[in-house]
Amino acid sequence: MLVDSLRGRRRRLPCSLWFLLLFAAGGLVLFIHQQDLSEMVQQQVPGQSPPAELRLSMHVLMLSCSSANALQDVRLLKRMNMYRTLLRKPRPPSEPHLELKPGLGTLGRSWKKLSDILEARRQLMKEMCAKYKSSISRTITRHHVKHLFVEDKYKLLYCQVPKAGCSNWKRTLMVLAGQAPNTQSIKHDTVHYGHHLKKLDSFDRQGIMHRLETYTKVMFVREPLERMVSAYRDKFENPNNYYHSLFGKPIISKYRVNPSWTALKTGSGVTFKEFVQYLLDVHRPVGMDIHWEQANQLCNPCLIDYDFIGKFENMEEESNFLLRWTGAPPNLTLPSFKDRNPTDKRTSMQITQNYFSQVSMLERQRVYDFYYMDYLMFNYSKPFKDLY
Ligand SMILES: *[C@@H]1O[C@H](CO)[C@@H](O)[C@H](O)[C@H]1NC(C)=O
Ligand SMILES: *[C@@H]1O[C@H](CO)[C@@H](O)[C@H](O)[C@H]1NC(C)=O
User: Transmembrane region positions (predicted)?
Assistant: First the structure.
């Protein structure tokens, strides 16, 4: 009886009161975050990156506020901007620009420049890690090294960041390992499904630690939004049973209004906007994938002290520099195959901007937020001028 009457009363609570309660709770969370911010920046929670956490709670808030007026959004954005200014470190003095096509005579000089740039990247990474990640030394587990490929002959560990020149590096590693005479002779499927290269997590603890301590550790990154668009184009704009079935179906069924029977059945035709909605959803209907996961999440650069942080944007020069550095055969250079959908144009910044014109300003902002740690750690500048 009592329960019944209570239930009845609750049902009668006006909808607007619930909204009020929701905002009150949201405001409280925001307030607590503000209070704890300075502590978080210095102290840092082990195993978590505070800004990402902060962002996540902002996103939850923004989601819960999405039905409110735009003013609320603007105020939240301003606050986020304030946080970011607090979190951001001052930029180091600029470094000399890279010579892209060195003549033979200037080779030595240009490589000196390149090694300075590489060193600056490592330093920046160290500063970012000191600032945002745990100061308590965390132990490396098998899970942390599961994306690292092992090449024992030349003592290389290569962290796989898909859509950042990964296939061409896999080919190169196979040649180094003596599994193929040259990179041209390796077929696409062999690169991707052959399982010829060993992963570091397949070794025992001692094997893992020994290699981490003595091998050259390498990772390559790419402009985060460009990489994300590249992943979308590769997996959703081309026939791909695996991705359409595993990701396409739940994405279409959650975000598309009135999906057709065929779309639900095949999972084909996910739009870029739908993909963005999925990526930003705190309750994603299906998990993340290495093709669009943040590079810092895949390679754990704060735990693993990479000797070499290369950039896709200058892939060939930096890779060949690395190959000479490791003592690879002189005639081995990084190939430039475009394995996936060779007829599609390579994703450029121009193409990336075209894709992002299909989503709202707020969504674009939130995708940038999503990859913000990659932007900070790998020193990429804001891809759009109007981002906070
Ligand atoms: C970061 O990038 C900017 C602009 O591209 C460059 O001037 C600066 O030297 C870079 N800093 C580091 C530490 O790599
Ligand atoms: C490099 O040269 C050797 C000997 O001439 C040859 O066997 C090998 O295939 C070449 N490697 C590449 C990557 O072209």
Answer: 12-32
- Which is higher by pLDDT, 177 or 55? 177
Give the model's pLDDT for residue 93: 35
Output the ligand 2 site: residues, CB below 6 A: 175, 181-182, 329, 331-332
Distance 97 CA to ligand 1 centre (A): 9
Ligand lying closest to the C-alpha of residue 186? 2
Which residues share a beta bridge with 220?
A: 310
Higher per-residue confidence, 19 vs 281? 281
Judge whether 71 and 375 are in contact, CB under 8 Å.
no
Mean pLDDT of 130-141: 78
Q: For the chain, give every domain's residue range.
A: 16-87, 107-220+301-325, 225-292+347-377
In percent, the amount of the chain with pLDDT more than 70 equals 70
Closest residue (by CA) to atom 11 of ligand 2?
182
Ligand 1 center from residue 382 Cα (angstroms): 13
